[in-house]
Amino acid sequence: MSELTRPTRPIYRNINITQIVGYRLPLSGIISILHRISGAILFVLLPFVLYLLDKSLRSEISFSIFKDTLSHWYVKLIVLVLLWSYLHHFCAGIRHLVMDVHVGVDKDSGRRTAAAVFVVSLVLWVAIALKLFGAF
Amino acid sequence: MAYGDIQGSVDGRIGPKRLVVGAHYGMGDWLAQRVTAIVMAIYTVILLVAFLAGHDYTYAGWAGLFAQSWMKVATLVALAALIYHAWVGMRDIWMDYVKPTGIRLCLQMATIVWLVACAAYAVIVLWRV
To answer: How far, in Å, CA of B43 to CA of B73, rounded?
Structure first.
């Protein structure tokens, strides 16, 4: 009975990596997968962050090395990736914490807070990126 | 006691076939993920305030901030939170995407070594200031 009336929709169980391209995610789903990706990036780049901290703290000389290191465009690129990862992970994480206390768990507010995460994290990212590249 | 022995919701247990609570079935890690996140968020605010409130952006100012004991302790606490947080997160990733037990176990061990090495490096960096 219900088999006849129900429109045929694709059913996804244990999505394969090859299906991901054709799989349309809602905004909150994009936030979610980016939360995971940004977390993995931060995990991988953690020694680099500690290296920069080391160089910046050890001595006056290493501090100037640190500044020189940061002046290279490719290092700035890595820092930009790091920054985006941190900002996205931070904002999406705050959204998680808010939802954990049962605020904004319905479909509409979920979409709105997901959009807010994008806006806040990307605006901050662009602002810091411009500062990093000496735009102001 | 074997989990299979427990029937239905007898004794208020959830799940028809087995005990799904009380033996590290995720609640502890779920909570730890939140608590460590809050610790790191607070540290982020501390670092931002300390950085923006100070006007000395030279080596002396920066190293002076980390030379204080409270800052060392705060950084180490945030780092401990980070290590645990990253462990739970990376373990989730391995569990979701890597199904062969042997490979998953290797990746999980590598994750732990990676994180402990990072923690050791951070302690060296902090206590040299």
So the answer is: 11
Query: What is the spatial distance between Cα B125 and Cα A63, in angstroms, rounded to a whole number?
Result: 13
Q: Where are the domains of chain B?
A: 26-128
For chain A, give the mean pLDDT.
89
A127/B contact by beta carbon, under 8 A? no
Q: Mean pLDDT across the stretch B94-114?
A: 95
User: Distance (Å, rounded) from C-alpha A36 to C-alpha B90?
Assistant: 9
Flag whether the pTM goes above 0.80: yes
3-state secondary structure of B18: coil
Amino acid at B93: I
Residue range A29-85, pLDDT digits in tens: 999 999 999 999 999 999 999 999 999 999 999 999 999 999 999 999 999 999 999
Q: State how far the Cα of B27 lies from the Cα of B24, in Å rounded to an integer.
A: 7
Q: CB–CB of A57 and B62 under 8 A? A: yes
On whether any CB of chain B is under 8 Å from the CB of A65, the answer is no
Q: Where are the domains of chain A?
A: 23-132
Distance from CA of B86 to the nearest CA of A (A): 7
Nearest chain A residue to B91 by CA distance is A40
Structure tokens at A16: 């394969």
Contact A97 B34 (CB under 8 A): yes
- What dotted CATH number matches B26-128? 1.20.1300.10
d(CA A8, CA B3): 40
Domain made up of A23-132: CATH architecture: Up-down Bundle (1.20)
